[in-house]
Amino acid sequence: MIAGLVLAMANFIVVLDLTIANVSVPHIAGGLAVSVSSGTWVITSYAVAEAICVPLTGWLAGRFGTLRTFVFSLLGFGIFSVLCGLSESLGMLVAFRLGQGFCGGPLMPLTQTIMLRIFPRELHPKAMAMWAMTVVIAPILGPILGGWISDDWSWEWIFFINVPIIALILFGVVTLLRGVETPTQKTPIDGIGLALLVTWVGALQLMLDKGREEDWFASSFIVGCAVVAAIFFALFLIWELTEEHPIVDLKVFRHPGFTAATLSLILAFGTYFSSIVVIPQWLQTSLGYTATHAGYVMAFSGVLAVVMSPLVPALMKRFDPRLLVFTGIAWLGVCALLRSVWWSTDATFWTLAMPQLLQGAGVALFMVPLTTISLGAVEPRETASAAGMANFGRTLGGAIATAVVTTYWSNQARTDTAQMAGELNGAPELLARMQERGFGVEQSRAVIEQVVTQQGLAVGTTHLFMVAAVVLVFAAMAIWLAPRPPKGVGPAAAH
Predict the structure, then answer these.
(1) CA distance 495 to 492
(2) Any idea where the Major facilitator superfamily (MFS) profile domain is (predicted)?
(3) How far apart are CA 480 and CA 326, in angstroms?
(4) Quick one: which of 46, 17, 22 has its CA closest to 36?
(5) Is 457 buried (19+), middle (13-18) or exposed (0-12) by CB count in 10 A?
(6) Separation of alpha carbons 212 and 444, rounded Å
(7) 248 — phi, psi (to 5°)?
(8) How many helices (H) and strands (E) does the chain have?
(9) C-alpha triplet 258, 129, 254: angle, nearest 5°
(10) Stated pTM of the model
(11) Which of 148-157, 204-213, 341-350, 410-419 has the highest mean pLDDT?
(12) For 426-442, what is the mean pLDDT?
């Protein structure tokens, strides 16, 4: 259990770094004397490197050994964290964030693989419950911790804070996990497959990260990225499916259980993760919340998730895991629907926090069984590859969903604002009353415009969550495409 906690903490620190820098971009940009838009490369570079490296985990573990790859990745992550904090220019910081992403990518699937190796089969659900909570809680704590460190300390400490935690994890791994190394096999390096992977993932991630800023397909840069991503993705599929020693083992998708679970994970986690991006923005731009108080609203998502997590393994012994996944994702859909009904510009703190609190139960119900179904559907030798592909799908699903959702949210808010402005009755009388109270004509118009824009953004937010509820229903239904895993059998044994 202690070793499992150490591994879960390794995953936690990697997932935390996905979001901790988001709220610190203005501070980083100011400290390095660059624009905020240029500062976003700090986020983009890490996401691109991690997305490229995650699916390579299976090959790395097979070539160098699971534990050895894990230790070197963790050590590299710590070294690059220090270098990020010591950076004196944007170019240095972006380069070191790339290194941090390359080292951090394999850690997520490798923590799963090692946990399944050290825990007895009957305890696999508990191990996956421990692992899943790091994926849920880290994105919530990231913005809170990043904002607090940047405001009260300095942006460099969002990277330096990793170092003592990584040192403790390394000590725990070296002390507790001796003798769990997996056998290695010196397979040839699939250089062409690696080049194709780097090209299409890098182009896609750039398109998603810069699309909204560049007005999407009105920009030749975005069109070029889309074309490159599409062509090289097709070439990548053809090459990897026909290569004798592929860099990414796509054959794991031949298992219906793994494919269905991964599809459900991409849809559900993508929708969940994009809400983590949208809600704090709306609270701060429309309702006047500070970054800290917006973080408090978001933090409620982790309460029931932590409470429910220990109960899920017992439920998995009594009920079909697919039913738990369906119930958990459908419950997230209900919570999204509650937001669309309850939330407005007059919403109180608890009205905003209640759906966040309730959805925690759904997250625990779907994440733990879904991971068990996914990894339980493949053969033991494929566990590292399957974990890498599932985490790659989750990462890519989050990136695509965030890009799509933020664009839809912005467009929907403008549409609703324009519709409200067109249907605004009594504007001349309202202007006259405001002028009687001492407001000038332009001041009165500005105040009315501000109110209409604020209300339009609120309505656009509720419309967004209506759509999210529909997507979550499809994600919940997708799990029924998976065959039922044998009762009481965990990953690596359910094949």
Answers:
(1) 7
(2) 3-487
(3) 8
(4) 22
(5) buried
(6) 32
(7) -125, 125
(8) 22, 0
(9) 5
(10) 0.73
(11) 341-350
(12) 65
